[in-house]
Specification:
The protein has helices at residues 3-6, 19-38, 40-55, 71-83, 95-126, 128-141, 146-156, 161-185, 189-197, 202-236, 245-254, 258-287; strands spanning 58-59, 63-64. By secondary structure, it is mainly alpha-helical. 27% of the residues are buried. The model has no long low-confidence stretch (mean pLDDT 85).
């Protein structure tokens, strides 16, 4: 009798079906740990904020903390903005209306910037002639601050959503464009040569080789541009607009309601954070199993 005859025969004949479930379950503790690591900093800042207001601290740049509301007052204002019934003034329960209007403007301006900048960046990255023709003009216009465009946009476009969307577009388009150009130009020539050796047609090289290789750089530009879109949104909504987070800050400033100003600032920060996470989720869904992102 050989060793093969005495070997145990009760080994499983099929791979375990619970492996994908186990991997998904393993992500949950990792996310919990990430949240726990992120909590101490905002909690510490909140504690210092509360102590600073109570003690009347004076910070650099002459910031007088005694003029700020306490974290509790801001939390009450946030709750009243969201659901009402806490302070019961003209702003009670209006958060979602303002947030929806601002989000719509950001999405429209950002989407328009991406639709223009990504194709143009790919063309400029692949064509030296187009790059030499457009690069000087782009770098001449790019340093002009968006705040300088705001008065001009009101004169040539008028008050309303279109002016704000135009400012968001200007804030986002250059970050996406420059990162796309850099990503396309950074594609190694050896990668293109390898694709040609494997039989990739020249007409297919762009979307089979160049674009996937440039995706990390493009996504980085999209994330920067999305953050800038929320920054400039406040500038665009300060004049001629009554509904929106920037308009809400303007109204609060006119009435010297610091608790409302800080509450809306927190809402803008949370909205920008969630928008960034949704963008990354969308990119991963589109990428599927392809190793385009870290």
């Amino acid at each position: 009798m050989t060793a093969l005859d005495t070997a145990p025969t009760d080994r499983p004949t099929s791979p375990p079906a619970a492996a994908p479930v186990t991997r998904r379950a393993a992500r949950v503790p990792g996310r919990v740990v990430a949240v726990l690591w992120a909590l101490p900093v905002p909690l510490l800042l909140g504690l210092l904020w509360d102590r600073g207001v109570a003690g009347g601290w004076t910070l650099p740049f002459g910031i007088q903390m005694r003029f700020l509301p306490t974290p509790y007052e801001v939390a009450r204002r946030l709750a009243d903005l969201a659901v009402g019934g806490v302070i019961d003034d003209t702003y009670s329960g209006t958060l979602w209306l303002h947030l929806y209007a601002s989000t719509l403007r950001v999405v429209q301006g950002f989407a328009l910037a991406a639709a223009v900048a990504i194709p143009l960046g790919i063309v400029m990255g692949r064509s030296r002639l187009v790059y030499r023709m457009l690069e000087p003009t782009i770098n001449l216009v790019r340093p002009i601050p968006v705040t300088a465009w705001a008065p001009l946009s009101l004169l040539i476009i008028g008050f309303g959503d279109r002016s704000t969307i135009f400012l968001v577009f200007l804030a986002a388009v250059f970050s996406i464009l420059l990162n796309t150009i850099a990503g396309v130009r950074a594609v190694p020539e050896r990668l293109l040569e390898a694709a040609a050796m494997l039989g990739t047609q020249p007409a297919h090289t762009l979307y089979k080789v160049v674009l996937p290789a440039a995706v990390p750089s493009i996504v980085a530009g999209l994330r920067i541009a999305l953050g800038l879109s929320w920054v400039i949104l406040v500038v665009g909504e300060t004049v001629g607009i009554r509904i929106g987070l920037g308009a809400l800050i303007t109204q609060a400033r006119e009435q010297s309601r610091t608790d409302l100003i800080i509450a809306v600032m927190i809402v803008i920060g949370l909205a920008g954070f969630l928008a960034d996470r949704l963008l990354m989720l969308l990119v991963r869904l589109l990428a599927g199993r392809r190793p385009l992102l870290p």
